[in-house]
């Protein structure tokens, strides 16, 4: 039973690799980075690079080491990040490089793991980040026009970019200093905006490139989406697919700075998902057709803590459907499928860098091959590799969206699923096909939107053993005053622009005025059945309207008209408008002119003598909330706020603060708050602002029951969450929690029920996998000495299934196992006509009680062939539980 023995040896090897990869690398010896038309040249060698996008402030410093390690384990060579000007310079001239903004620490961690770093300084970054990364004070610089040939802007931009470059150099973080930084970026997607600025835009591009390269950073610079990137600056591609991309000079390599592996989400929207098969297809096609550097935007998306979400209207989660989820756990099968892809590309790297361009072969109407090799001779159907110095790797692509194809490549027949690429590191054996997912699927405890993988639709309920834990039975409350609350309120004639007043110190700005209504007016309304109304010509992002202290209506939108019927009494009436921003604009030309709040006229209609224009009335202004400025969410807040016990009959109540103390869930897993019972507001834990929350419901329609990976992806193609609140789970980083007595404070605008707020650990609850006999053998075998020496051939090797729970978790039970022809999908598997009776015992023996396991896919492993002549598949569903709860630690 050679096959059996070999398969177990393979599984052993896997456990070893996982262990070894946890050991940290070291900083580098100094090396130079340059490029030619084929690739970046690192320390004298062309490299094929996969990069993982991680934005450091979207995680905590405590999370960084794990995120970087998981990126590396997933096959990343590079970490890419933007820098965030408004986080680093919140007040002009006062810099912040601490905590989540400790850029130096982040870069050093990347280097200590042996990964390179691509630093995209911007300083405009878009990034679905508040104001695209610009500090709001930048608007107030006299004479400023952003992102164009404007001296005040250029001065500020240069000062910040120089500050970052100098900091990196002082800390010895550039490659030639032995640091990890191999590449930088100036500006960001300016090509989309350039035409709005005419000649000045063109001059600005030239200035920006010259300014950046003049800073002596000593590594290449890129400008993404910038076809006119000047001189040495490399123009790069940001898209879902970049395999057709050609830079503007033959001297520059093809770089893909943003491979959109998912998409962001808006309040009231659905969740986009990009299938792993299509993502892998896009990456394989990119390297196939001459690409050399590819970055996942995002590899880890994370969280928009505080008020950092951009907008308008981007949610607090920036999960992005990334291979590492918002909480730092692997999103499977995406992460695992990409790891396999990266391993396959790595096997091809010697051949890919050896030549200037691939050899093209048409294999069918929608099928083609690209071959990279040296000392390769092809004659008709034969391929000869001459000598030890020869290299040969090939990509076989089927771009047909509907049908599989059998193609002949040098005398051998290959079956290519629709919309897929097979990677042949030796021009003969398939190491990977983008449409064949061998990686496991993972379902998390907090997963609420339906799990979508290719051709699978699973409506999620909470897993059975997960109980709802209400965070507290006792709550305190205090009302937020409506209108002016502080000495710094002021009264002027007319409507001021929102940001001009708040300087974004708060989302909230109160506008208050008083209207006199005479007896005649009241009788006019009564006699003519007229109802007066308030109209606002245009407004963003949200307004709440109060008459005489009572909330009578709200409206939301982006520069929309508001018509609100109002009931006024005889005499003086207080009209209060609360203007709210929900993330400042992060995309578009002339951001400095965008502003927020109201555009005039603001009128009362339906009066006897016509409309009353309030645009030039006396208005009193108050920035922010009283509780916000008194910092009543901090731990040392000293009860002066007047908290009282919250009783059930007092809810729901608008404009209220709530607070309680709670114990953290046991364990070290990341934690999430379920705020589905609340309306809209903001939340703080132990004084840390965890973000805005809003239980806005997504449209009922537009989601897909089945996500078909085939064909060109767009962000509307595979969405989930229809008819449900967009976000209900909010990440509370572990490092912000202590064991007990954690302070939770919420500001609620519209009225929710804090008694129903629950808390839960976020971990992988269920894992499933599906691998067939026809799957390619494990990629590790390519480096096995017997394979390299030709002592074993690919046809002798068997595929295998790998299963793994999160760290500290153990496979407690096998819920389903069938070797044969099973059907269904994760959590809904069923047996087919063909089923090996040993399925469950073989899998249980290999997996139960372990953190990870591996099962070979062959008749020998399952003690015989359950159905001769049929391609068999192994399907497994398993449960993961904390190792501590089952009384023994995971067996390795
Ligand atoms: C990098 O390039 C510079 C300038 O050409 C050279 O002086 C230096 O020795 C190089 N460093 C390494 C490590 O090759
Ligand atoms: C999707 O599933 C159906 C039934 O489960 C199957 O017939 C079909 O071939 C699958 N399609 C793809 C693209 O895998
Ligand atoms: C508003 O400000 C004025 C001074 O400008 C002050 O006298 C008044 O008390 C303030 N109102 C509130 C409610 O604090
Ligand atoms: C903001 O205030 C400045 C002066 O402080 C003024 O020049 C500018 O027009 C204001 N912007 C808007 C949009 O009202
Ligand atoms: C309590 O709060 C009040 C008002 O914010 C402040 O003046 C006072 O110094 C605080 N006292 C302590 C002990 O923190």
TrEMBL record:
Signal sequence, renumbered to the chain: 1-24
Organism: Camellia sinensis
Keywords noted in UniProt: Apoplast, Glycoprotein, Glycosidase, Hydrolase, Secreted, Signal
Alphabetical list of SUPFAM superfamilies matching this protein: (Trans)glycosidases, Galactose-binding domain-like
GO MF terms held by the record: beta-galactosidase activity; carbohydrate binding
Protein name: Beta-galactosidase
EC number from the UniProt entry: 3.2.1.23
Residues in SUEL-type lectin domain copies: 799-881
GO cellular component terms, A-Z: apoplast
GO BP of this protein: carbohydrate metabolic process
Main location group: secreted
Localization terms from the record: Secreted, Extracellular space, Apoplast
Family in the record: Belongs to the glycosyl hydrolase 35 family.
Catalyses which reaction(s): Hydrolysis of terminal non-reducing beta-D-galactose residues in beta-D-galactosides
Taxonomy, superkingdom: Eukaryota
């Amino acid at each position: 039973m050679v096959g059996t023995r070999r398969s177990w040896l393979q599984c052993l090897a896997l456990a070893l690799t996982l262990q070894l990869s946890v050991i940290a690398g070291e900083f580098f010896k100094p090396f130079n980075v340059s490029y030619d038309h084929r690739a970046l040249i690192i320390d004298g060698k062309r490299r094929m690079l996969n990069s993982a996008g991680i934005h450091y402030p979207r995680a905590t410093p405590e999370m960084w080491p794990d995120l970087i390690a998981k990126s590396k384990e997933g096959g990343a060579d590079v970490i890419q990040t933007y820098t965030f000007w408004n986080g680093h310079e919140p007040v002009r001239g006062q810099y912040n490089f601490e905590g989540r903004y400790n850029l130096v620490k982040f870069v050093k961690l990347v280097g200590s793991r042996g990964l390179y770093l691509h630093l995209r300084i911007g300083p405009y970054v878009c990034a679905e980040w508040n104001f695209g990364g610009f500090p709001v004070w930048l608007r107030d610089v006299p004479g400023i026009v952003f992102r164009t040939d404007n001296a005040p802007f250029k001065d500020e931009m240069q000062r910040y970019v120089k500050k970052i470059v100098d900091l990196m150099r002082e800390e010895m973080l550039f490659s030639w200093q032995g640091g990890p930084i191999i590449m930088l970026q100036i500006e960001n997607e300016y090509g989309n905006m350039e035409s709005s600025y005419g000649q000045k835009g063109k001059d600005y591009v030239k200035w920006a490139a010259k300014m950046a390269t003049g800073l002596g950073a000593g590594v290449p610079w890129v400008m993404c989406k910038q076809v006119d990137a000047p001189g040495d600056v490399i123009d790069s591609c940001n898209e879902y697919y970049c395999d057709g991309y050609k830079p503007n000079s033959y001297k520059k390599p093809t770089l893909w700075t943003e491979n959109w592996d998912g998409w962001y989400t808006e309040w009231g929207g659905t969740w986009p998902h990009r299938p792993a098969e299509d993502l892998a297809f896009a990456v394989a096609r990119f390297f196939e057709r001459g690409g050399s550097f590819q970055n996942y935007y995002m590899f880890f998306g994370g969280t928009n803590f505080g008020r950092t979400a951009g907008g308008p209207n981007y949610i607090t989660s920036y999960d992005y459907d990334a291979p590492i989820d918002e909480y730092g756990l692997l999103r499977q099968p995406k992460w695992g499928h990409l790891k396999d892809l990266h391993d396959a590309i790595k096997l091809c790297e010697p051949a890919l860098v050896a030549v200037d361009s691939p050899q093209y072969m048409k294999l069918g109407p929608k099928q083609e091959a690209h071959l990279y090799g040296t000392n390769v001779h092809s004659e008709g159907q034969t391929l000869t590799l001459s000598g030890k110095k020869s290299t040969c790797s090939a990509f076989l692509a089927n771009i047909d969206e509907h049908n599989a194809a059998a193609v002949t490549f040098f005398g051998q027949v290959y079956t290519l699923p629709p919309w897929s690429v097979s990677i042949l590191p030796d021009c003969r054996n398939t190491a990977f096909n983008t449409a064949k997912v061998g990686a496991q699927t993972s379902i998390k405890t907090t997963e609420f939107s339906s799990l979508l993988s290719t051709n699978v639709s699973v409506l999620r309920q909470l897993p059975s053993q997960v109980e709802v834990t209400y965070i507290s039975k006792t709550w305190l409350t205090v009302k937020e005053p409506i209108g002016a609350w502080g000495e710094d309120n002021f009264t002027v004639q007319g409507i001021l622009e929102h940001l001009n007043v708040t300087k974004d110190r708060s989302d909230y700005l109160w506008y208050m005025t008083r209207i006199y209504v005479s007896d005649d007016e009241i009788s006019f309304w009564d006699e003519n059945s007229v109802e007066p109304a308030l109209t606002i010509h245009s407004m963003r992002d949200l307004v709440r309207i109060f008459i005489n202290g009572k909330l009578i209506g709200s409206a939301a939108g982006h520069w929309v008209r508001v018509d609100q019927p109002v009931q006024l009494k005889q005499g003086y009436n207080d009209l209060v408008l609360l203007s709210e921003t929900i993330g400042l604009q992060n995309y578009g030309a002339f951001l400095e002119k965008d502003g927020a709040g109201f555009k005039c006229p603001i009128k009362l209609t339906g009066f006897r003598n016509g409309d009353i224009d309030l645009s030039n009335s006396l208005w009193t202004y108050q920035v922010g909330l009283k509780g916000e400025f008194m910092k009543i969410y901090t731990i040392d807040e000293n009860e002066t706020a007047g908290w009282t016990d919250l009783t059930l009959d007092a809810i729901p109540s608008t404009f209220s603060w709530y607070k309680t103390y709670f114990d953290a869930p046991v364990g070290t897993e990341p934690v999430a708050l379920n705020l589905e019972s609340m309306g809209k507001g903001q939340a703080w834990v132990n004084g840390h602002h965890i973000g805005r929350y809003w239980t806005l419901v997504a449209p009922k329609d537009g989601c897909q029951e089945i996500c078909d990976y085939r064909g060109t992806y767009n962000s509307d193609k595979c969405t989930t969450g229809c008819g449900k609140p967009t976000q209900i789970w909010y990440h509370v980083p572990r490092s912000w929690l202590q064991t007990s007595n954690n302070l939770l404070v919420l500001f609620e605008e519209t009225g929710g029920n804090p008694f129903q707020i629950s808390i839960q650990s976020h971990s992988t609850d269920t894992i499933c996998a599906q691998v067939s006999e026809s799957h390619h053998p494990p990629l590790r075998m390519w480096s096995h000495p017997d394979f390299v020496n030709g002592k074993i051939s690919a046809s002798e090797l068997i595929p295998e299934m790998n299963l793994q729970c999160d760290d500290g978790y153990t496979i407690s039970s096998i819920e389903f196992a069938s070797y044969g022809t099973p059907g269904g999908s994760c959590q809904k598997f069923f047996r087919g006509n063909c089923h090996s009776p040993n399925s469950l015992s073989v899998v249980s023996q290999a997996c139960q009680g372990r953190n990870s396991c591996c099962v070979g896919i062959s008749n020998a492993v399952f003690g015989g062939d359950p159905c001769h002549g049929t391609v068999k598949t192994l399907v497994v569903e398993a449960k993961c539980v904390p190792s501590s709860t089952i009384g023994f630690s995971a067996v390795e």
